[in-house]
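Renewal narrative, Specific Aim 1. Our central claim is that a sequence can be written position by position from structural information alone. The example that follows is taken directly from our test logs and has not been curated for this report. It begins with the structure tokens describing the chain, in the order in which they were read.
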């Protein structure tokens, strides 16, 4: 009897050690920067963020999913263990127990702890992503209107700041938002009419653009040079889905040249040519102007001629 008890003790101790070992390995893997997410396609999180902020949000997501999987595997294990260990073996009714107080406390306290840990890391990352610095390197005012964008490069933060240069989109031309890499960029948003939403998918970030005195402000640093489509992410009316712009990230030197060219009176395509974009590259390459299908007698192709609308 005593021998079998000892055997059971050894078995459970071994299992405990194995469990600790697995948990330790997982922790080491996570802490050593092993990118578990990359092996699983980001667990559904969009890949290819171009800012440190997007990387932090990605890490939070991967950490949360891994934690959820660890809990999930443990719970599934318990379920299957119960199903097999306590399956029906005869007609005799098993001993009927009412409750187990330590268990009750455990499965009340554990989820609360899990929520606290998730909340803690979410609050840290969110505060970090929303942080506004005192001295951004570049401030750009994003003005949204039905159905296009204007980008004003400001001398300093604040709605009364001097506008150094400006780019506005039209039916024929997609507006380009040229910005430098490796610098703190502040976006200050305002709308001329309804609520829009500024969204560049590669920033993994969007924020509503509100009319009136409410001015949403956020900051990012762009790591990589490239050209990325930007969109309106708030249903704002007829041409909402076509309210596109393009983010062009270039080196800080080229950005300064672009800004100087704009300040010297060049149009945006001319300033793009000044910093080395030629031919069609002077215009947006990730999206193109849309056909409004409007003429004197026709509104969006839906009205009969002469209805006066
Ligand atoms: Cu919009």
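The sequence written for that structure reads:
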């Amino acid at each position: 009897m005593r021998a079998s008890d000892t055997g059971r003790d050894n078995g459970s101790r071994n299992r405990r050690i194995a469990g600790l070992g697995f948990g330790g390995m997982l922790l080491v893997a996570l802490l050593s920067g092993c990118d578990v997410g990359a092996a699983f396609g980001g667990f559904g999180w969009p890949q290819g963020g171009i800012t440190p902020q997007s990387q932090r949000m990605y890490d939070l997501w991967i950490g949360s999913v891994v934690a959820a999987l660890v809990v999930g595997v443990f719970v599934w294990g318990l379920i299957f263990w119960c199903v097999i260990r306590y399956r029906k073996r005869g007609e005799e009714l098993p001993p009927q127990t009412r409750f187990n107080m330590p268990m009750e406390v455990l499965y009340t306290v554990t989820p609360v702890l899990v929520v606290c840990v998730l909340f803690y890391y979410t609050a840290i990352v969110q505060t970090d992503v929303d942080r506004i610095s005192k001295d951004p390197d570049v401030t750009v005012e994003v003005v949204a209107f039905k159905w296009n964008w204007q980008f004003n490069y400001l001398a300093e933060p604040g709605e009364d700041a001097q506008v150094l240069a400006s780019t506005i989109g039209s039916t024929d031309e997609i507006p380009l938002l040229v910005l430098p890499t490796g610098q703190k960029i502040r976006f200050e948003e305002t709308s001329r009419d309804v609520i829009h939403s500024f969204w560049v998918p590669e920033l993994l970030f969007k924020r509503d653009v509100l009319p009136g005195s409410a001015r949403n402000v956020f900051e990012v640093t762009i790591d990589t040079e490239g050209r990325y489509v930007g969109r309106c992410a708030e249903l704002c009316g007829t041409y909402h889905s076509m309210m596109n712009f393009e983010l062009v990230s270039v080196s800080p030197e080229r950005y300064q040249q672009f800004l100087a060219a704009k300040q010297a009176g060049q149009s945006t395509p001319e300033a793009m040519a000044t910093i080395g974009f030629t031919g069609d590259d002077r215009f947006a390459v990730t999206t193109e102007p849309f056909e409004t299908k409007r003429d004197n007698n026709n509104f969006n192709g839906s009205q009969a001629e002469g209805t006066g609308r």
